[in-house]
Amino acid sequence: MKTITVEELAGRTGVPLIDVRERDEYAAGHVPGAVNLPLSELGDRLAELPAEAFDVICQAGGRSGRAVEALSMRGHDATNVEGGTGEWIAQGRPVVQP
Q: Which PROSITE patterns does the annotation name (predicted)?
């Protein structure tokens, strides 16, 4: 499974970011630019995934890791963000709260 750190994520540009946390978690605060596709809905929303390579984030890296493994087996070029949104926030990085 491909992985990147939060530091690497912060330096990336032009790579879509999918947040697989539940809607309420996402609404409480997410990485700028992240698109919410909850893991619980992902199977029904595969058509919404980017055609190009993308990163996947959750709260700590567990759910996104499971998503990346499953999506990779389906042919998607997905990368897990280790440490997730929790690490992003812990580092004092900007968060969007709609």
A: RHODANESE_1, RHODANESE_3
